[in-house]
Amino acid sequence: MGEKEKRASNRKMPKHVAVILDGNRRWAEKRGLGTSEGHEAGARRLLENAKDCFAMGTNTISLFAFSTENWERPEDEVKCLMALFEKHFRAEMPFFQRDKIKILVIGNRAKIPESLRGLIEEVEEATKSYEGKNLIIAIDYSGRFDILQACKSLATKVKDGLIQVEDINEEAMEKELLTKCSEFPNPDLLIRTSGEQRISNFFLWQSAYTELYFPTVLWPDFGEAEYLEALTWYQQRQRRFGRRV
Amino acid sequence: MDSNQSMRLLSSWIGQIGDLGLNLLWRFIHIVVSLWYIVSGISEAIESYAISLGLNKKYSSIDLEKLRCLAVVVDIEAVQDVAKVVELLQWLTTIGVKQVGLFDSQGLLKKSKDLILETVPGSMLLEEIGKDFSPDGKRIALEFISSSDNKEAVMKAANILLQRYLKSSHPENDQGENFFTESHLNEALGVVGENVHVPDLLLVYGPIRSHLGFPAWRLRYTEIVHMGTLKYMRYGSLLKAIHKFTGVHQNYGT
Questions:
Q1: Rounded to the nearest 5°, which phi and psi values hold at A239?
Q2: Segment B130-136 long-range contacts (CB within 8 Å, at least 24 positions apart)
Q3: Any signal peptide, and if so, which residues (chain A) (predicted)?
């Protein structure tokens, strides 16, 4: 990202950008490459775009890297994805520490390979003190799972006497969602690449007033210019959060 | 000293000119993008008009088998114009859509429910339809939804599950896996009156491009299409959006 883009963006910037990284397989297919190469290209793009977002002043970036439904993909592809996560978490640790980016991985960790789970814990521990830049990576995440685990968490607190039943309300619920880790839990802008116009079980609760942007470009091709276009589009929106103007 | 001061002054001027230049560049980018959207909007309007006139044979018949449930989100400003909502429903009936969920965050459409049901021919309340109902001809089942059916309903349903959990024989041994599943929450939502009809397609009418708090639990795999303002809605655009949906292939993450 050039200095000019960074310095020109004085207008309102989204504090929290969520991205559904769609299109890796189609990108690879168009180029006669294998699926794993598509995912590798997607992983590189992910980190480049994260750097651009933070440079533009975004506080939180959430990436839908692996959904609960993705476990149904061919075993080789799933193994490839898990190996990619491990590879890039290890490789990018110096970058996270240098740029003081807090890493948070949300989702159901029960099915994640143990080696990856351990690495995730290491990365989270190493970056937990950083403030101002949050990179949330959703692995084995689903919006319905998020709502259910929040309900379960509240139930456990009631059972343990930490809260009363009367204390359970929307605010209490939002404090239990997996996005509680961020100062800005509700995305301002949600980008889903590849032209599909769905949120596919991502941030169901959190996206009530999120601006939805569905560019047709495939994820590995979503670069600096495409992100600038998304930001320009976002800055032209008039957000009301359900209220009258 | 003087030369240092001069250098600092010069540097400050260069910085200010640079910032001004960057600001102008950013505004220029905005203008270019805005122009692109204006041109795109004009092109869509022309295409929509052509579709409405039946000039594009592709839209002359649409297979609605995939579209079991359509939802419409109406912006709070637009929802005052019930006549426009009625017109939209009449268009949907003409196209052959059988089930429509109408949402506005404040529940104003719920208050106009009787008027809408009286004015839209063949319309009936979804909740009054029996299980053996088979939509035929120009009939359309309507559901009226508001924000109270979203988070508030989930909280009420969660409370039902919580009560069951606390009343279970060994809550101290149970981490909740047997009480907090998707099917349990679906059932509890039904108890509190949230019917959980999952829309295949969601059309958003208004200046905003968000779903404005439409019941989150229902939106998992719903196609979301922004249609512009209700005031300037076009039959051709509606037909095009529905036609496009029928061609969408979902792999549901697999």
A1: -85, 135
A2: B135/B98, B135/B99
A3: none
Residue B23: closest C-alpha in chain A: A8
pLDDT grade, residue A217 (50/70/90)?
A: very high
Find out whether B252 and A69 touch, Cβ atoms under 8 Å: yes
**Is residue A242 a contact partner of residue B147, using CB atoms and an 8 Å limit?**
yes
Q: Where are the domains of chain A?
A: 11-141+186-236, 143-177
CB contact under 8 A, A158 and B162: yes
Q: What pLDDT score was predicted for residue B130?
A: 60
Strands, E, within B6-160: which ranges?
70-74, 99-103, 123-125, 140-145
Q: Which two tokens stand for residue B57?
A: 């044979």
Task: Report the alpha-carbon distance of residue B204 to residue B222 in Å, rounded.
Answer: 12
Instruction: Report the CATH fold assignment for A11-141+186-236.
Output: Undecaprenyl pyrophosphate synthetase (3.40.1180)
Q: pLDDT for B228-243, tens place per residue?
A: 999 999 999 999 999 9
Query: What is the model's pTM?
Result: 0.87
Say how many residues make up chain A: 245
Q: What pairs with residue A138 in β-bridges?
A: A64, A106
Q: What is the ipTM of this complex?
A: 0.88
Query: How many angstroms separate the CA atoms of B81 and B73, rounded?
Result: 14
DSSP lists the bridge partners of residue B74 as B205
Closest chain B residue by Cα to residue A141: B253
Q: What is the mean pLDDT of residues A106-120?
A: 95
Q: Which residues contact B68 (CB under 8 A, 6 or more apart)?
A: B98, B99, B200
B105 contacts on A by Cβ (under 8 Å): 242
A189-192 β-sheet, strand order: A102-106, A134-141, A60-67, A16-20, A189-192, A211-213
At A53-69, the pLDDT tens digits run 898 889 999 999 999 99
Angle separating helix axes B151-167 and B182-191, nearest 10 degrees? 110
- Best of B14, B16, B20, B22 to substitute, by most chain A Cβ atoms within 10 angstroms, is B22
Which one-letter DSSP state was computed for residue B224? E
What pLDDT shows up at residue A4?
43
> In chain B, which residues have pLDDT < 70?
1, 130-137, 169-176
Strand partners, A212: A190
Q: What secondary structure letter does DSSP report for B245?
A: H
